[in-house]
Amino acid sequence: MIRSTVALLLATAAQADEPPTSPTLAANAEVARMLDFGDREDFAFAERGFVATLDDPVIRDAQGRVVRDLRAVAFLQGAAPDTVNPSLWRNAQLTSKHGLFKVMDGIWQVRGFDLSNLTVIRGRTGWIVVDPLTTAEAARAAMGLVTKYLGARPVSAVIYTHSHVDHFGGVRGVVDEADVKEGKVAIYAPAGFLEHVLSENVIAGPAMSTRARYMFGNNLPTGPAGHIGTGIGARQAGGAVTLIPPTREIATDEALTIDGVRFEVQLTPGTEAPAEMNLYLPELRALCMAENLNGALHNLLTPRGALVRDAKAWADYLTVARRRFGDRAEVLFTPHFWPRWGTVAIAETMERHRDAYKFIHDQTVRLMNRGHTGTEIGNMLELPPELARSWFNRDHYGTVSFNARAVYQRYMGHYDGNPVNLAPLAPADLARRYVAAIGGAQKALALGQEANAAGDHRWAAELLGKLVFAEPANQPARAELARALEQLGYRSESAPWRNIYLSGAQDLRGEPHAQEAERGASELARAMPLSSLLDVLAVRLDPAKAGGVSTAIAFADPSTGERRVARVGRSVLIHEKTDAPAAATVTGTVPTLLALLTRARTAPELIGTGALKIDGDAAALQRFAALFEAPPPSFPLVLPR
Ligand SMILES: [Zn+2]
After folding, report:
1. Which helix (H) or strand (E) holds 20?
2. Which pLDDT does position 635 carry in this prediction?
3. Is 0.90 topped by the overall pTM?
4. CB contact burial 171-210 (16+ within 10 A = b; e otherwise)
5. Mean pLDDT (whole number) for 309-336
């Protein structure tokens, strides 16, 4: 099996990038006809206040590896090529603009270095940094540009608008943790920030990061037939994801002064992130809407996977923001996309963008209550023309279809109510039976080819997806499915959809690509309390090894004085804070225990450095450690597991 897969990978490696079929060309031409490409307001906003970009366009890490090459987006000029939806092409042209931009006196942004923006606000003594990008290297390069053109000033404070990694991961590129510990730099975040950073990135991290690679297209080559952007910004920067926990989590809508600048906070939990906040700066009449207001439709459920978001709360918070800030703000800036200027335009954007989420919520629920399922509504619902024509409501990131299914999921869950779907067969089993029912692999392939030839690529993907799940080593089936996915990618208005389709085609063809390095889950895990570390351990327990085992190990964290006993029995790990006896006691901080549990360091090594102490039955601890598995670094998404 392994050998035949390798042979297959080699045999199919040269078939990428087929030209768009005529139905794909027709679909893209219809988009070009339907939307108002003469409306250039976004281009004026995205170019306004440009100061300069990097002289050396290649951002590197300390080892000299390329973190981001700004030259790679130079092809995004002129009319859309046949391989890109024209609406998405326009989005990519806008989000790829890079450099330092003046938002207003006192506020600047570095855009286009990463999928998010770094904002600096001039405080009394230094810079207040809002959202320091995804990686330390990208953030350091951004601050270098700020220093070069605006002068050297210390960073006096950092604000994380929300708990997603592209809004805090670069923090070590802008501040020293020692300065934070000494109280020289304060870090602000909305209530619940650290808890949600950990639950989103650590517990479900391995599954999410694999899916995120598809969604953000991290393994795709940049170019007209490949990666053109992420819909919400430029390509994600490489480098080290870091975290310094906030020194102050803001728990109520309050007014506060940070380094001499006044802020009014609006907390918006449960919207785009479980912990998020908008900020209004009354002296500057500037409004930061975090990721609650964007230059495109956002996700109510991200395709990388996360808890489903609350469309109604999102719309309601936008109504409150409109009321509180909409008549005062003269400039609106966000950690993605570009700013907007003018009180009237800002207020109208807030209302129209709010209406898009409200429409998707209300109409999905209306159709749900008429008996339609999520899949049906996802195929039915469209924004009305008066909302759909606003560029900031287009499907460049989230889509109406995916969002409608998300609203259904939030209220009703994954089951659609049809008894037929109560206990579905496993996908690979189902696929084998369907292929047999169709009349065998040859027949299924012929039908898939026919559908592709007719431009019916969604049906082709359905048929061929079954065939590939039934026969994952069937090379013609994989090549034909790759064709269908590629055409769907070329048509997608959403960058995540395009990236997901093209990544699937890439994997089916076995195209060689650089495997992305591990992106810092362990750095995030270092900030976990002991209880969260043991929660992670619990979801790695292998019942095949734990069956019949009954044992208890105590873990003591000398930095907090906390002692918890982890008990394994009946193939379940339960842990609690207790003085109860245990077979062995392991004393070490969370980073030390992580190094031990992830086998990055051995117990004798850690004991040798004095970081770790083991009391009691060392053999019992060894048996305990053997009960856990490490998740694979990634897994196939377009093939059966
Ligand atoms: Zn973001």
Report:
1. none
2. 84
3. yes
4. bbbbbeeeebeeeebbbbbbbbbbbbbbbbbbbbbbebbb
5. 98
